[in-house]
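Run log // design_07
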């Protein structure tokens, strides 16, 4: 089955602008709770799925951008 999954078609189905959706998939815009709700409705999964995916991308980006800085932090020795 051809679902016609183009940026324009998906944006239309989600009720958002093509530019807005294009920015999201090109990582120029973060996943908002509202967009997560729209995507979960369209694809039949949970909004948490989409928000967790965004959180994972955010953590990965932060780790890679600040790797040296984070390594300098000394772990607390408790006990």
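design_07 sequence
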């Amino acid at each position: 089955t051809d679902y016609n999954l183009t940026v324009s078609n998906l944006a239309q189905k989600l009720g958002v602008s093509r530019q807005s959706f294009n920015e999201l998939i090109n990582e120029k815009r973060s996943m908002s709770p509202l967009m997560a709700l729209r995507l979960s409705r369209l694809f039949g999964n949970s909004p948490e799925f989409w928000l967790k995916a965004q959180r994972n991308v955010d953590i990965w980006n932060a780790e890679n951008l600040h790797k040296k800085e984070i390594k300098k932090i000394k772990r607390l020795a408790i006990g």
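The two ends are 60 Å apart (CA to CA).
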